[in-house]
Amino acid sequence: MSLLPASVTLVALAIVLDLIVGDPRALPHPVVIIGRGISALERRWNHGSAQYRRAMGFLLTAVIVLGTFTAAWLVVTLLTQLHPWLGLAAELWLLATTLAIKGLAEAGKAIAQPLAQGDLAAARHALSMVVGRDTDSLDEPEITRGAVETVAENTVDGITSPLLFAVIGGAPLALAYKAINTLDSMVGYRNERYADFGYASAKLDDIANWLPARLTALCLWLAGSGLIGRGVTVSRWRGALAATCRQAPRHPSPNAGWPEAMVANLLGVQLGGINFYQGVASHRATLGSGQMPLNVAHISMTLQLMHGGWLLFFTLAALTLWGLR
Q1: How large is the average pLDDT for residues 313-320?
Q2: CA 30, chain centre distance (Å)
Q3: Does a structural domain hold residue 68?
Q4: Which of 54, 111, 115, 205 gives 147 a disulfide partner, CB atoms 3.0 to 4.6 angstroms apart?
Q5: Phi, psi (rounded to 5 degrees) for 228
Q6: SS3 of 275, please?
Q7: How confident is the model at residue 115 (pLDDT cuts 50, 70, 90)?
Q8: Burial, 242: exposed, middle or buried (Cβ in 10 Å; 0-12, 13-18, 19+)?
Q9: How far apart, in whole angstroms, are the C-alpha atoms of residue 51 and residue 96?
Q10: pLDDT, tens digit (0-9, with 9 covering 90-100), for 156-190
Q11: How far is CA 303 from CA 4, 86, 150, in A?
Q12: How confident is the model over 202-222, as pLDDT tens digits?
C-alpha cells in the first residue's frame, strides 16, 4: 500500500514527465485550447458600456474556469470508466501540461548561454521570447535582470501554483488554475480595452496566486541556504526574509514581488527599475540591495534557487496533504 495519496504520486510522476519531455510542440496543449476559447468569447462579449463589459468579463471568467475544470474531469472520468489505466494516463498527461519546469529552465539557459559568450544580439532575442519589454538595446546587466525577474516570477505561476492546485484537486483543479492564469495573461490588463472586461480575470488570478507566491518566497529562502558560499552570503540569507517582507508590497503585482524580492535579496542584486514597452518608459520600484552588479552568473544562480524552491514547495505540500489525510 502506498504511503502517499494517489494524487501526490501522480503529481510526482507528472513532474518527472515534465522534466523529461517538457512541452512537445507535436502534441496538442490544453492551454492553447483555453486561449482559443478566451479569444472567441472576448471578440463577442467585449463591447458596450463599461458596466456591461465588466459583467461580461465576470461571465467569461466563470465560463472558462468552470468549463476547463468540467472538461478535464469528464475526460479523466470517462477514460477511467473505459479502463483505470487510461484514466491514470490521461490525468498524468494533463497534470504534466500544467507544469513548466523544463521550459522555464531552458528559457533561462537560452538567454545565459549566448550572454556568457558575449553574443548580446542572441541573448536579447532569447529574452524577447519570454518578456514583453523592449530588448533591442539592453546591455548584459539589463538582459540578466530581465532573465532573473522572469524566472523568479514564473516560478509561481509556471510551477508552484499549479503544483499546489494539482496536489489538492488533481488535473481538473490544476487546469482550472491554468485557465485563470491564461485569462489574466490575455485580458487582465489595465488599459482601455481590458480595464473593465478583464477586471474579474485579473482579480481571480491575484487571489489564486496569493498563498503560493508567499510560500514560494519562503521555499526560495530555504533553498538559498544551499547556495551559501556559492553566490549567497550568510548575512544576506539571514536578512533576506525580513527584507522581502518589506519590499515585496512595492511591486505593482500583489504576488510577483514576493519571489522577485526574495531572489534579489538572496543574490544581493537589484531588480526592478525602468523598462521600455514599445518605446514608452515604465517605472517599477526597485527590489533588493544592489550590492552586487548583475551579470550572467546570476541567471544560473536563479535557476538553482528555482529548482530548490519548487522541490521544497512540493515536498511540503505533499507532506501536509499526507498529514491531513
Answers
A1: 93
A2: 16
A3: yes
A4: 111
A5: -65, 125
A6: strand
A7: very high
A8: exposed
A9: 38
A10: 999 999 999 999 999 999 999 999 999 999 999 98
A11: 28, 35, 11
A12: 999 999 999 999 999 999 999
Q: Is residue 296 part of a domain?
A: yes
**What is the number of structural domains in the chain?**
1
- Whether the CB-CB separation of 199 and 54 falls below 8 Å is answered with yes
Per-residue model confidence (pLDDT) at position 4 = 54
Cell numbers for 33, please give them.
485550447
Distances (CA, A) of 199 to 36, 55, 181: 19, 9, 13
Give the residue numbers spanning the domain of 270.
Answer: 6-324
Distance CA 226, CA 139 (A): 30
Asked if pLDDT for residue 118 goes beyond 90, the answer is yes
| pTM for the model | 0.94
In a domain, 300, yes or no: yes
CB-based contact 197:42 (threshold 8 Å): yes
C-alpha cell at 57: 468579463
CA 25 to chain centre: 20
> Residue 1: inside a domain, yes or no?
no
Q: Which of 154, 201, 157, 89 is nearest to 302 (CA)?
A: 154
The Cα 238–Cα 231 span in angstroms is 14
